[in-house]
Structure formats: structure tokens, C-alpha cells
Amino acid sequence: MRRSEWKWCWAFAAVVAGLTSLPYVMGYFSQGEAWRFTGFVFAVQDGNSYIAKMLAGSSGAWLFKTPYTAEPQAGVLAFLPYILLGKLAAGEAVHEQLVALFHLFRVVAIFALVPATYRFASIFLSEPSWRKWVTVMATLGGGFGWVLILAGLGNWGGSLPLDFYSPETFGFLAVLGLPHLVLARALLLLGLATYLGSYRSARQAWLAGFLFLMMGLAQPLSLVSAFAVIGGHLVALAGAASVSHDWRVWRGWVRSGIQAVIATSPIAVYTVVAYARDPFLQAWASQNRILSPIPGHYLVAYGILIVPALLGVRYLITGTTAEGLLPTVWMIIVPALAYAPVNVQRRLPEGAWVAIVVLAAIGLSKYAGSSPRARWVGPAFMAVSLPTSLLLIGGSFSASMHPSEPLFRPAAEIQLFEWIGQETDRGSLVLAAFDTGNVLPAWAPVRVVVGHGPESAGLNEVLPRVEAFYTVAVSDEYRSAFLREYGVSLVIWGPKERRLGDWDPASANFLEQLHRAGDYRLFKVVQR
């Protein structure tokens, strides 16, 4: 990589960071006396949970304990970037500080991802123009999901097109709002690039393992992708060695792979042991269902580049280079990863889009030739790949300009949350409707009975009981027993809770009103 290429990477990263930051800036300009901006333009429930993790860090936590359950927890080394970032916030307007730190993290991660992608592409492509094409496509590109939307098939097979909701399938959604995934992909690509340079360097192999170790701290599931790619690469090399009857090269690569895995093993072993021993983590894992859609969605997603990618595979296999086998294997194992028999199968093809784009660039660059029309081939493919991202950024702009839930929250609700954060004990358990419970821990260092799909343990059993609590169909004896069972100390009664039923908490002799903000009331549990 020449100096001019590095400059291009920094400039492009600045463009991507600036473009994806504009909807958030617009959101803050759009808030006013009636509405407060959450700081997110999509996946707001998850966004609130990230801010809640950062708030826990600012309150002194070092291990992750979700605030979205009443179940006891031992704490686990997870979501470390968010917990560490939270320690930088203090004083007034902590929520605003945390959101600003979140997006600063996102911007920094973009500045890591762009050169990491370019560096990975440079292993296989010598022309800077095609390296740049790969980098743009890998960060901003998508598939034919926009065609399904325009054709009225937005719910084909019971699922949105992968472009619109799966950050691991492409990458733009992560760039738009999921910084830990952006950082993990940057480290994945740098780790694999380093691994490919480790055949004659033990130091490079250990460095690759260290990069994977850091990646595991940001997103443990990316370790599965890294190990699968390296394992597939070694299997492919074994196949080549069996043909040539020369196993010396293969043994060198096995040594590099083992060194990289050993360096990564602390976080991998820790994660496996933690989940095996902690009942809460097991409950969380059982509820964390991130399943892949029907295979047709992957064909729609990746079909845009499948033909040029296969041409790239043909060229690399003909060349029989050890390095060239890696992106080839990566593309081949996508179905096995996407439909692995685990709850988080859709997460596992993380980064495969980059390999497919690299293969497509090789195919286009080698087979398009040097004809006058060849220079239009890359831009043509890019033109049909970018509409999904344009729709996403346009939709984000539109949503951020018109205050409404869930991107915005009523100002009175936030006033109540801020009062809770200032005037009640840290870690108090609060009962509220699911939607209210999702937002509250992002503004106040308290826990809620329910509020997040995967993180609220036993949600299918607990949520109906919470909803019944606010109805007139159950007795005060039931409500009092429920509060004692879970150890609830505060009860919120606002618009979301009133929609669950007509029960008035002011009529209960075991509740005492502490505060009121607009249509929102907070009650203290006083068991008599």
C-alpha cells in the first residue's frame, strides 16, 4: 500500500463516518420540549441496551450484568468496549455523554474498518482501482433486497431482505449503528491478512492470534467465523497437498493456524466455560434466537456478485496459490455457517461478504479485459449494489426529522427517568411495561423485570405476569405477592402501562406515590 492509498482510505473513512452521522445530528436538531431523541435511528431496543451497558460501566461495573431481568447474575466478561467507554462519562447529562461516546466509537471503528478492508483486498488485487472498489462495496454495498422491496415482496418467506436487517450479511447496517460489530470485522480482516503472511513467520502467527483475541472481546461470535475460515483453509491446503504429494507447505500453514488459535484461546475458553456454568447465560443463549431466513434470501443477497465471484474462484484455483484459497473457502462455507444448528446461525457468516466482493473483483479484473467497456464494469455492479444503503440512509433521515416513538421518547417520560436516576438507589428493581422497561436502564442505573428480548430471562413466562399486574382481572393480593416474589421496589404507571389495563395503582395500599411527571407516575412499594 502506497502513501496515496492510505490517504484515500482515510478520506473515504471520513466520508462514510460523516454520511452515517448526519441522521443522528438531525435527530438531535429535531427534538424539543415534547420529545427527546434516543440517539438511534434503527434497532432502538438494542441501542438502548448498549447505552444501559455503558451506564453500568459509568456506575462502576467491570463485568456485564444485564439490567433487564430480576434473576441473579454472577457477571461475565462481555460487551467490554461499551462498559469501558461508560467509564469516560461523569457529571451532568450522562445520557448525552454516553450517546456521544457510542457514536465516537462508531466513527473510530469506521476508521479501522476501511483500511483493514483495503489491506485485506490488497493481498489479492494489485490494482489500486480494484482495491478501492472492494472497499466501497464491502462497506456500503448490498444485494438485490431493494428489488424485492420494489416488487412488493418485502416479507418474502416471512422475512425482510437480508440487506435491511442483517449487519453481518453485508456491513452497512453495522457501519450505520453497531460499532462493536464494525470493530470486530476490522480485527477479523486484519487477523486473517496477518495469518496469510505468517507461513514463514511465527511472530505473524502470534500477532494474528492477538488480533483475534481482541476481536473476541468485541464480539465473541466472530471467533467462530475466524476459526471456520482458517479451518477451511487448512482443509483446502490438505486437498492440494494430497494431489501434489508434498505436505511440507501444509505443515507450515498448520503450525501458523495452531499458533493463532492458541493465542486466541483465553477468550474462547473463558466464553465456553462461562456459558456452561452460569444458568442466566444459558437462559439468555436459549432466548437469543438469530436464525437465518430461507436460502432464497441469501441467493438474492449475494446473487448480485455470484457470477463474477465464481470467475474469481476459477482464476484463483488455476493459480493454486495458498493465499488465494482462503477467500474461495470462505465463500464456499457460507451455507454451512448460515444454517449451522445453533440459535445464532445468522451471525456466523460474519465478513463473508468481503470475501465474495474480493472474488468478484478478481473475476471482473481478469475476465473483463482491457476493452474500452471494461472500465464501466465495476461502476455498473456498484450502481445496482448501493440502492439498499441509499434507502436505509434516506429512511434514517426521514425518521430522524419527524419525532415519534421509538426513535424519540416523550419528554415527560425522560423527566421521570432522570428523577429515578438521581433520587433512587442504584440497582433498584423497577416494574414497568416491556417498552418502558427497555428505555429506563439507558437513562437510570436501575434494573427492570422485563425490557429486552434476549436479556430478560424467562421472558415468555414473566411478560404475561407483568402485563396481568396492570389489569383489573387480578387481585391486589396477586399484585402484592408478585412484588414480593421478584423483589420489586418501584412501580411505574404511564401511558404504556395504562394500555395494559384500567387498574389504578393509587388504590393499592402497598404502593405510595413518589413522583409525577406529566402522565407518568412513580410508586414506591410499601409492603404492610
Brief characterization of the structure:
With 528 residues, the protein is mainly α. It contains 23 helices and seven strands.
Structure in words:
With 528 residues, the protein is mostly helical. The chain has 2 domains: 3-30 and 91-398, no CATH class; 411-525. Helix content is 61%, strand content 5%. The protein contains 23 helices and 7 strands. The strands form 2 sheets. Strands 4-3-5-7-6 form a 5-stranded mixed β-sheet. It has a two-stranded antiparallel ribbon with strand order 1-2. The longest helix has 30 residues, at 248-277. It is elongated and about 85 Å long. The N and C termini lie far apart (73 Å). The model has no long low-confidence stretch (mean pLDDT 94).
Itemize the secondary structure elements and their pairings.
Elements: H1 3-30, E1 35-37, H2 44-58, H3 80-86, H4 94-122, H5 128-140, H6 145-150, H7 172-177, H8 179-196, H9 202-218, H10 222-244, H11 248-277, H12 279-287, H13 295-319, H14 325-332, H15 334-338, H16 352-367, H17 377-385, H18 387-401, E2 408-410, H19 411-423, E3 429-431, H20 434-439, E4 447-448, H21 459-469, H22 476-486, E5 490-493, H23 495-498, E6 511-517, E7 520-525
Parallel strand pairs: 3-4, 3-5
Antiparallel strand pairs: 1-2, 5-7, 6-7
Write a concise keyword list for the protein shown above.
61% helix; 528 residues; 2 domains; mainly alpha; single chain; two-stranded antiparallel sheet
